[in-house]
Amino acid sequence: RNKALIRELSTPPLGSKDLFFPTRYSQSFFEQCIACLWKQQCSYWRNPSYNAVRLLFTTIIALLFGMIFWDLGSKRTKQQDLFNAMGSMYTAVVYIGVQNGMSVQPIVATERTIFYRERAAGMYSALPYAIGQVVIELPYIFLQTVIYGVIVYAMMAFEWTVSKFLWYLFFMYFTLLYFTLYGMMTVALTPNHHIGSIVSSAFYAIWNLFSGFIVPQTRIPIWWRWYYWACPVAWTLYGLFASQYGDVKDLLESGETVEDFLRNYFGFRNDFLGVVAAVIVGIPVLFGFIFALSIKAFNFQKK
């Protein structure tokens, strides 16, 4: 009787249709993005050990650099003054940028573990999760940029014009953004944040070497110069330095103008800022795209 009942229940009645759902997920793509963004907002707001610490770190570094390089931006009579100014920009990018890239990695690793469980439950797909993880970083990085930019720009006494101040914030914002997204990307490409930190650290060393500060672009051997243009930090220093000093006509003690010295020694041109700005915007877009693609394609869960 049981076997007969099973056969009867296994046979669909006449006129019936199989269950069909038009979409895999219960909500639309937009609703999934909103839900993931709200989830990340709650997660970040409840994680002061990450956000408050990095804002405090940025404030301390800004005050420290401001005191070390006090009134540096107004000094334009010696070549050494320009080297010091570029050094202040270089150290800020390295200190704060690398700190952003390293500190976000354990956060992304933890969130990815939750993502595996919730995606398996059919709550949302990989792309809305990746969008939420990237977008939630934007306001925190903007706040971080404003804190650092206002303090340092005032204490170092760079030229107070609207365009130069906005250029400074622009390049610092997208620099901190691509460092953060780079840290997220390396975690998405590796099984855990420990391996991700090892991989990212190797590239940080190469970025420092080809940034254009240790060895300027004009003095890098021609067969290695291609990597200078592939180095994100090099584009950052180009943008920051050229936007502040690329149009300055003051004479140095050597007899050449600041503008000519930048062009001859570093290879920086003020009229190239538009291209530099486009590249600086494109770098975090590229890292964010690779992060989303990696989250979707790779699955490192063990069970």
From TrEMBL:
Q: Where in the cell is it found?
A: Membrane
Q: What Pfam families does UniProt report for this protein, alphabetically?
A: ABC2_membrane (PF01061)
Instruction: Pull one GO CC term from this UniProt entry.
Output: plasma membrane
Recall the GO molecular function terms of this protein's record.
ABC-type transporter activity
Record's keyword terms, sorted: Membrane, Transmembrane, Transmembrane helix, Transport
Using the UniProt record, give the first listed, main subcellular location. membrane
Membrane-spanning ranges: 52-70, 138-158, 165-189, 195-214, 226-245, 272-295
Q: Which InterPro entries match?
A: ABC2_TM
Q: Please report the record's description of how this protein sits within the membrane.
A: Multi-pass membrane protein
Q: Which residues form the ABC-2 type transporter transmembrane domain?
A: 31-245
Matching PANTHER family: ATP-BINDING CASSETTE TRANSPORTER
The entry's protein name is: ABC-2 type transporter transmembrane domain-containing protein
The organism encoding this protein is Castanea mollissima (Chinese chestnut)
